Amino acid sequence: MRTSTAAILAAIALLATASSGFGAAKDYQFELAGPSQNGGKGVSVVSVRLLHLPDKRPVSGAIVIETHADMGPIGMGAMAASVKSLPAQPAGTYRFEIQNGAVWKKPDNWALTLAAKVQGEPETVRGSIVVRLQP
Prior knowledge:
The protein has 135 residues and is mainly beta. It has one domain (23-133): Sandwich (Immunoglobulin-like). Helix content is 13%, strand content 49%. It has one helix at residues 2-19; strands at 28-32, 37-40, 43-52, 57-58, 63-71, 76-85, 93-99, 108-117, 125-133. Strands 1, 2, 3, 4, 5, 6, 7, 8 and 9 form a nine-stranded antiparallel β-sheet that branches. A hairpin with a 4-residue loop joins β3 and β4. The termini are far apart.
């Protein structure tokens, strides 16, 4: 019985040590990297930074796998716009082109929801930020 208990405790300790080598998706956060830019003809360009929270460093090389923009912050979540990823910038900054002018004709708050894969992180990093877009 003592051998079984010792083996179980050793296994638990090993799992705890092994899992602590990885971060968790909650250790990352998307944040706005400046105000949105008017891209002309109902297009807004938004720059977002992905941060590793424990050390506050930007994360480069993440692959954004999902994007969504809607007017949820003003109670109109059904109003959505198409989002296109643009080439990434240095220092963990990711840019997106949002076609919001066809949906809404005045400046307002939009939710930009993102999902990304970070190298070495087993979980998908998900987050949403509120950004004021210009038509």
